[in-house]
What does this fold into?
Amino acid sequence: MTGDDEARKRDLENAIQNEFAGQYEVQRAKPGVFLGIVCIASVVTLWVGASELIQFIFDDVNFDKPMFLTMYANALFCIYLLGFLFLPSWQAELRRSYTMLFPPAPYPRAGRMSTGGALSDGDDDNGDGDWETD
It folds into this structure.
């Protein structure tokens, strides 16, 4: 390479560095990201392995009982559920998820008042158009 080529190459590298400076910085991933990727990879591996095993059982072993294999695979799911019985961290996460999906009502539900049988929601008592109280 001649001196002129090296100078152009250096100028090009400097221009690229200046153009994209700060835009493509490598940042540290959050700790949960690595664990999430490991979980996704393990699920994919298990699914592919299970499908290959099922295919092997049907084709090579000639075990033609698909209902048995389905019931067996679903019964193994119970092993996963044991974590919710014995691991307090799983139980806490389940409670947190439940309260996110079904938050407690901040006020009493609309409906009938508890005193005197008065109507509180503007509807008649039995739907017949008669606006009498109890």
In short: Helices lie at 3-19, 31-59, 66-86, 88-101. The first helix runs from residue 3 to 19.
